Amino acid sequence: MRKTATTVMTSTLVGALLAAGTAHADRDDWPESFTMGTASQGGTYYVYGSGWANMIADELDISGGGEVTGGPVQNLALVHEGDVAFGMTTMGPAAEAEAGESDLAPGMPLDNACAMFPMYETPFSITALSDSDITSISEIPDGASIGFGPSGSTSDTYFPEILETLGVDFERQNGGWNDLGGQLQDGLIDVIAFAAGIPIPAVSQLEVQTDVNIIEFTEEEQQKVLEEFPVSEFMIPADTYETLEEDARAVSMWNFAIAGCDLPEDFVYEVTRITMENNDKMRDIHRSAEFTVPENVKYNEVLPFHPGAARWFNENGYDIDDDMIR
User: Fold this and answer.
1) Where is the signal peptide (predicted)?
2) Fewest beta carbons within 10 Å, which of 8, 97, 162, 247?
3) Strand-pair category, 113-129 with 248-260
């Protein structure tokens, strides 16, 4: 019996050592560290992306973190060039980048950025101070100074065109969300046009410091925007902000995490697995991560998937067609 027990223990130990050796071998081509391109501080991308990077770094025991960037458009370029391993983007800028129509690289397809996993929808919403008496889009005065977020962000790319389509005349301002929130509170700008996952930290902070109006689209305005832009219907739940008394009508665009297409397949597989199998930890990072679930993978019809990410989804019953895999 002692001999049998010893044999079993020895076999178990050898098996464990072999498994450990295999795991180590599988990581030989992994990067020693990684960076996730986010956006400006005060926006959802920064909170979500930095928290995600810290979680992945802890789970995989490698160095990683978030980096402040100009947002979705710049993230596509940074990932394409290999300046960051991962990034976050929305489907509108992604389609333009694939077609070689990115403002940062006109005429050059940014095709080395692959889809990894779904994040959440980005609603387009408008905030003004309550004492401005702006309670609707049609009440925004001609020549109003409107902050559209960082240059090249989803908001800056699409919201000016959306408001122009709705007949708004404005002066365009750019800046980080926290900075624009301070300018709004100080009366330096009249309105902020946000495109970010909710709740937007800068809006929540404004609510604590002053009275604000969160302005919704009318049904007619929403329909007109749906006809002209790559967005979907969306309702901002009333419990998102203290200011809201009922759901607010908006439009939205899906966000996906992206990875350099040349990153090792096993590395991206593990990153995807950890993200998709730990939604409770993701929700602890940011409330919007309740939508960071496998079934939402279907909302990417633009970017090809990284083979490592596609392998995890296909293994778990979320089929990705071969022509959507790089």
Assistant:
1) 1-25
2) 8
3) antiparallel
Instruction: Decide if 249 contacts 218 (C-beta within 8 A).
Output: yes
C-alpha 172: how far from its chain's center?
Answer: 24
Rounded distance, CA 295 to CA 309, Å? 14
For residue 46, the Cα-to-chain-centroid distance in whole angstroms is 9
What is the separation, in whole angstroms, between the first and last Cα of the chain?
A: 55
Element at 156 (helix H, strand E): helix 154-165
pLDDT tens digits in sequence order for the chain, 326 residues long: 444 444 444 444 444 443 443 344 479 999 999 999 999 888 889 999 999 999 999 999 999 999 999 899 999 999 999 999 999 999 999 999 999 998 788 899 999 999 999 999 989 999 999 999 999 999 999 999 999 998 878 899 899 999 999 999 999 999 999 999 999 999 999 999 999 888 988 999 999 999 999 999 999 999 999 999 888 899 999 999 999 999 999 999 999 999 999 999 999 999 999 999 999 999 999 999 999 999 999 999 899 999 999 999 999 999 999 999 99
Domains and CATH numbers, the chain: 33-121+254-324 (3.40.190.10), 122-253 (3.40.190.10)
Residue 170, beta-bridge partner list: 144
Q: Cβ(84)–Cβ(36) under 8 Å? A: yes
Neighbours of 16 (CB within 10 A): 10
CA distance 79 to 93: 13
Neighbours of 243 (CB within 10 A): 17
